[in-house]
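Sequence in, structure out. Go.
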Amino acid sequence: MHTYKSYKGFLWLVFIAITLTLTSFRFMANSTTVEKTILEEKTYLNQEVKSVYKSFAELDAIAEMYRKGEADLNTFRSALSKARNQYKRIEFYLAFHFPEFVKNHINGAPLLHLELENALSIVEPEGLQVLDELAYADESTDNKQNIYEVSKKLFNSMYAFQAKNAILNVEDDSEIETLRLQLVRIFSMGVTGFDTPGSLNGLPESKASLQGMQDYFTKAYSKTKETEAFNEVNNLFKGAVEYLDKNQSFEDFDRLEFLKQYIDPLYKSLKTFKSKNTATRLTYVTSWNADSESLFAADFLNPYAFTLLKKEEDSEALKSLGKKLFYDTAISGNGKVSCATCHQPSKGFTDGLPKSMSIVEGKTVLRNSPTLLNAVFADRYFYDLRAYTLEQQAEHVIFNPHEFNTGYSTILQKIEDDKEYQNSFKKVFGKKAEISRANFAKALASYVLSLQSFNSEFDKYARGETKSIPDGVKRGFNLFAGKANCATCHFTPTFSGLVSPMYTENESEILGVLTDNKKQPYQLDDDMGRIANDINTEKAWIYSRSFKTTTVRNVALTAPYFHNGAYKTLEDVIDFYNNGGGAGLGLSVSNQTLSDEPLNLTDEEKKDLISFMEYLTDNTAGEKQMKKKL
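Output:
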């Protein structure tokens, strides 16, 4: 006989079963909806890729006609522009998910490079940038065969890629991050002319890119179209496209206004839609910080992406220990020099000399002392790029007979004999931790990593923290990122050769630097640079006289300039670039990567450039150290 309680219990079990069933159906329905949405997005993106392929096929056909004399140069240029714009619509996705393919075959820089499998085998560049340079060169009519061959390679590469339907196999939820990184690419490479070295069509291509991004965004996030956040992003996309429509002159384009009115607000607003758990995945492919809200934010890049030191290992105590080591002369071979000897806080962590003094009396080291401000933001160190980590960089100084002229065993013994150091190491690493080479390197890296400089008056204005800057500074920035071509090698926001938008690779350039820029006849400096960095895989002629592109931040404090310190003033440096480097001065410079064409800057434009660069001064780290000494 069933009791009331058992009957009630039975009803409760039935209720739970029905609820679970309904929930299961609802979950399955939601899962199906999500899968359908993702498939629709992938189908759309795949169709965009097919459109790129078609435009490349047309370009290939017209290139062949041009070679045969059946089409003129303007017809080819028109087809190239169409193909480039079609690619730009989907670049945000392709460049993020297929970076090596894009770099090697679609839109890499038009520079000779080494083949990975055989490091000493030099590979000719290919892709859209190469075609842009060829089609707009003075001798373009003599380049018909080359144009045809590069166009054919481009077509074949895209044919193979689209045939695989590779996009349909991408398993990733970081599409908002790809859009935000594309904004960085547009500002640092598009409107600066980096992507269009011949035509300077960077503005219309940036427009095409923004339109492609907007089309994708409105499709991918259509379910949020009634929200304020969606409308804000959509309106910013529209405004940016309209701004590019109205302002089409490359030299007159106000890049700073474009940044403040559209790029930076879009960058911040899109963060609202940022996918979850993305930061961890991005850590492996970029040093960019997805949590930053401005291209000029102090936390735009993650410094720990460049060091062996991990964020969770770092601390104020570790930095303090590293600082003590940095200023301690006792750890050098002769007990008279410290890191600060060549990297003085008052001089932006340089020493003001053409070449730093050697530990050997009466001699100098090989090169000029570079600033340590923002030095951490690099994947290679020294002018010749011979060190791969910040920690390895310190090792070169320690063992160099002209610098510290000592070894780790000697340094560690000195530290072990010092009670103050013993206590400091125990405090940081624990009582049982060894005073080891690794811990020494961590401490020094922690201090150098802390020497960051992203709070100049220009940064504050770019972030909207101050309302105005001098007109000359604004003009100077627009020249830097436009007519003067500076930003095509000194990428924002580090203004160094750390290549945007992934910020994982340093460029080196061949400029044809002179031994003495005031003495004629001019002579090339005899320092061979990267080819002589003792890395066997880089002993190739394309690296002869190639040097790391250093930052222009804090240049008001870091004279003299270049690896040999031969240029005493910023005026000297700008004149050198304005004349087209060593080759522009009539010297024979093998594989000069700087254009030998004059920039034709006026005296007023040169002054504006200097005003801008001086406005990038932020020696907060050095000033703090100087105050403590007082």
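Check: Residues 23-31 have pLDDT under 50 and may be disordered. The first strand starts at residue 113 and ends at 114.
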